[in-house]
Backbone:
């Protein structure tokens, strides 16, 4: 057994020393060293290996020496990777920084020995910046190296795209480099922000949608750069890229006026836009690596061919700005490719990110193209205005010549006509004198009629219940009374007979003078029926009123059909309730029960007129709590139309009354008047309006 162990250890050591041991030598304190070819790596498919396992002989022999200037393990993988770095300092004792100058690392954990034990330094965009040991945008670790000392550092990482550039430099140079990076990035972003603000300002001033879409495109690039450079979570880069594609396509469609110039291409462009929106939604639900590949496919095989085709069609139409558009796209493509080459070749960029520079150059050139397009359009518009003005002047000159000829021809005929007009004017003068005399007589007659109607109004007001009587009978009430003309065909009547209180609302046939005369007859008959004849039941009151009106107007002989729609309600107080009796001719009663409007419809029978119906008026008896609210009305409110000839409607009136139960009756009246005035704005009142609400 002892010999087997010795043989095993021999082969293990042989395997370890058989591999070339990579070593990183620091010889120049001012040099930034790319570590791609000086490290070894190991794939951890499950991601569950510990630093102790990695540091054991079993896994040390599995490390592979890198042959790449920049480590790159592809894109579609869920594996973790371990990077081993053995660093020897031959310069001076001081602080050094090991940096991953790339923001796409979700997890970047550094392992370094402190006091003989491995210590974990967590990093990566999945970790909030405030919780990182070095609170920087990009993963980095700071450590001290004594002269001629050797340090072993492991890096375990997982990233969206597995390109893994590694740089080491002294702390002072790192700080200077970061400062230049921040300054250059901030300068470019500031210019982009200024262009965005200018485009938004121009859009609101010109309403030209091209400015809006260019502003959206610059904003998406602005945000993408912030994500890509690690200022915000880099995990959203692939999702933000889809927004870049959408805004880029929208700007191209607007810039080249595809909808107007190429309708068929525009239809296809809408399908592409819908597909890009679908892609933007999908990338939130798939792994980031797949999202990155999908984005590259969309740009390479969908957006770019479509834009190129649109540019070619525009060039054929003589669109000069298309050349500037090509220049902007070309600069962006060249500089982005240069960035990819530099990253993968391991060449350090002191402070300039060529991807950002590519987007910046594209925005600048596009801005010049848009400005040039606007200038050309303005110039073209001015030329068209100038041509139109010249054509208009030519037409005016020709028209003036024609008019002068016609004036000359007609002058002679006008002289003859003037003589004839002089005779006619004399005749008209005499006619005018006669008309003025007739007008004066008519005005005098109209004045007398107006005075008579105003006198009738005073008489009608006298027969209506006074405010003193209303206050005496009701603790709280409102009367919304709005005649169509000076006098009204609507009236109300109220009184208290013994313990019973009566409230009557009537809508007489017609309005104006004819309606007002009926109100006087109706009010007088109610006085006689209720106060003199002592008829108390509402249904009997209506029957008697029906007969009396027919007799008073001699309707059987004269064959006139005048009458009224009328509602009568009376009530007596008993303990904490009121016993109500209601009867009506074609008018309803509304009352509040449990904060809801309830309705009792009147009988389908008219009071007065030539109807031979023998049907009696229905009586409704029910009980309500004290201080309940009841409403009676004519049909004028519900039937009032607006400018579109739409009625206010009974349903809307009921809903309005129900919504106002938290208000006092006076406040309800104010609200009702406001709603009515708003409804009938810019139209005339079509009928008399009467609505009464009382608390019983």
Residues:
């Amino acid at each position: 057994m002892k010999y087997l162990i010795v043989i095993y250890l021999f082969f293990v050591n042989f395997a370890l020393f058989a591999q070339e041991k990579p070593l990183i030598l620091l010889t120049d304190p001012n040099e930034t060293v790319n570590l791609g070819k000086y490290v070894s790596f190991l794939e951890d498919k499950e991601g569950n290996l510990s630093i102790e396992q990695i540091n054991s002989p079993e896994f040390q022999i599995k490390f592979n020496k890198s042959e790449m200037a920049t480590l790159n393990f592809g894109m579609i993988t869920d594996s973790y990777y371990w990077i081993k770095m053995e660093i020897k300092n031959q310069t001076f004792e001081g602080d050094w920084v090991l940096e991953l100058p790339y923001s796409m690392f979700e997890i970047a954990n550094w392992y370094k020995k402190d006091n003989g034990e491995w210590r974990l330094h967590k990093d990566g965009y999945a970790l909030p910046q405030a919780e990182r040991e070095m609170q920087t945008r990009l993963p980095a670790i700071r450590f001290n190296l004594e002269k001629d000392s050797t340090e072993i550092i492991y890096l375990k990482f997982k990233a969206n795209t597995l390109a893994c550039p590694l740089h080491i430099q002294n702390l002072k140079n790192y700080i200077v480099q970061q400062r230049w990076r921040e300054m250059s990035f901030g300068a470019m972003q500031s210019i982009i922000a200024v262009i965005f603000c200018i485009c938004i300002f121009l859009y609101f001033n010109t309403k030209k949608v091209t400015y809006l879409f260019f502003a959206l495109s610059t904003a998406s690039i602005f945000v993408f750069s912030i994500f890509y450079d690690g200022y915000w979570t880099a995990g959203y880069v692939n999702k933000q890229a889809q927004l870049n594609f959408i805004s880029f396509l929208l700007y191209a469609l607007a810039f080249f006026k595809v909808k107007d110039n190429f309708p068929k291409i525009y239809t296809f462009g809408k399908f592409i836009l819908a597909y890009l929106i679908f892609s933007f939604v999908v990338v939130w639900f798939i792994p980031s690596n797949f999202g990155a590949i999908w984005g590259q496919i969309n740009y390479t095989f969908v957006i770019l061919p479509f834009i190129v085709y649109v540019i070619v069609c525009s060039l054929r139409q003589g669109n000069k700005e298309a050349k500037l558009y090509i220049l902007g796209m070309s600069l962006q493509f060249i500089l982005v490719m240069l960035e990819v080459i530099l990253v993968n070749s391991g060449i350090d960029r002191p402070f300039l990110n060529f991807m950002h520079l590519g987007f910046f150059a594209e925005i600048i050139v596009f801005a010049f193209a848009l400005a040039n397009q606007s200038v050309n359009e303005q110039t073209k518009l001015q030329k068209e205005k100038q041509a139109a003005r010249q054509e208009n002047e030519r037409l005016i000159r020709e028209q003036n010549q024609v008019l002068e000829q016609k004036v000359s021809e007609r002058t002679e005929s006008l002289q003859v006509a003037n003589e004839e007009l002089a005779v006619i004017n004399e005749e008209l003068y005499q006619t005018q004198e006669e008309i003025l005399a007739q007008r004066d007589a008519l005005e005098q007659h109209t004045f007398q009629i107006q005075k008579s109607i105003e006198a009738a109004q005073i008489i009608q007001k006298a027969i209506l219940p006074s405010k003193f009587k209303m206050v005496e009978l009701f603790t709280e009430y409102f009367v919304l009374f709005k005649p169509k003309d000076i006098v009204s065909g609507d009236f109300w009547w109220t009184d208290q007979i013994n313990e019973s209180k009566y409230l009557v609302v009537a809508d007489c046939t017609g309005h104006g003078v004819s309606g007002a005369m009926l109100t006087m007859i109706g009010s007088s008959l109610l006085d006689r029926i209720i106060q003199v004849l002592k008829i108390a039941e509402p249904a009997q009151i209506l029957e008697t009123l029906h007969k009396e009106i027919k007799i008073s107007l001699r309707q059987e002989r004269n064959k006139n059909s005048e009458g009224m729609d009328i509602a009568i309600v009376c009530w007596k107080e008993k303990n904490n309730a009121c016993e109500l009796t209601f009867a009506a001719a074609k008018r309803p009663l509304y009352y509040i029960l449990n904060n809801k409007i309830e309705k009792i419809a009147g009988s389908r029978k008219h009071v007065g007129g030539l109807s031979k119906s023998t049907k009696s008026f229905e009586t409704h008896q029910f009980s309500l709590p004290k201080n309940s609210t009841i409403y009676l009305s004519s049909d004028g409110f519900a039937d009032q139309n607006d400018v579109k000839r739409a009625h206010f409607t009974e349903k809307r009136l009921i809903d309005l009354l129900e919504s106002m139960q938290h208000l006092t009756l006076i406040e309800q009246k104010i609200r009702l008047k406001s709603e009515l005035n708003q409804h009938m704005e810019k139209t005339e009142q079509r009928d008399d309006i009467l609505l009464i609400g009382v608390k019983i």
The first strand starts at residue 24 and ends at 26. The chain has 18 helices and 24 strands. The CA atoms of residues 195 and 215 lie 8 Å apart.
